[in-house]
Amino acid sequence: MAADRRVAEGLEHLKEAEKCMKTSFFKWKADYDGAASAYTKAGTCFKSAKSYDQARQAFLKAAECNVQNNVMFHAGKAYEQAGMMCKELNDLNRAAQLIEKAGHLYREHGVPDTAASTFDRVAKLLEPTNPQKAVDYYLIGSDITECEDRPRQAADFQKKAAKLLVRMGNYDRAVEVLKVEKKFQIEGENAPEVSRVTVELVLCHLARGDFVAADKAYKDAYGIPGFTESDHCRELAELLDAYDENDQDRLSSVAARPMFKFMDNDYAKLARGLQAPGGGEGGKKKKAALLDEGIEEGMEKGQLENQEVGGEDEDEFEGGLC
User: Fold this and answer.
1) Prediction pTM value
2) Number of domains in the chain
3) DSSP three-state, residue 247
4) From the record, what ranges are coiled-coil (predicted)?
């Protein structure tokens, strides 16, 4: 079988690597370069044969040899490959540790682009099982790209982190992350994205029950080109007004509009779940007051009509029946 042939080929590469590592009276230092190459080839063969545990071990040995040889970029690549083999073995925590190690090696040895994309991958890997750790990795990626003066990329990492925090219900930290994203979006002169972040900030503040902060986030956006003429501005104004008036029915109605409905799913869900303070009784009281006012007006109108009718009757029979 093809898999068996690839395993056998991998075992031959392991033997070659072991020879490179041996020392003798005439060979005082191990051939780390040759060993790293042979271990990498062995790992690739085992990976092809889907013998993931053997591949993991081979890639780890390749990484160690590259570290000894002070070839850190290739050491990072080998650690990353070992991490991916751990993923195939469903050992996600170990996979994350190894890929993180690769990311740090890339960053420390002058390849920040590769480092940032590595932290992005490991964050995505952990999103379903350890979202808090994934947030940390996204923020590391943001820090790397910020140092490289790429604000739009840095903002994208912050955006991913904030979305996860909202999913976890950690609105306080989400607000802080969104503020940093907004700063990067402004630096990147990305007005549409600044408007989007403003909506997300307002939603998070309202979810925290902080109307004052939500209103301030909304008004701070007035300086964004095109914001005051946008749907974002109009819909947020109505949302804040409904919240301020404690009108749950109106709040839910505004939150169900297309602008909120077609946001990223985590924020759309957040908008749908907003609760007006005071149990949303403000709208009901207002309606009741209007109803009472209408009844009172009706009663007053009826009384006036009765008086007019009574006056006409009195005039008709004022001179008696004769």
Assistant:
1) 0.82
2) 1
3) strand
4) none
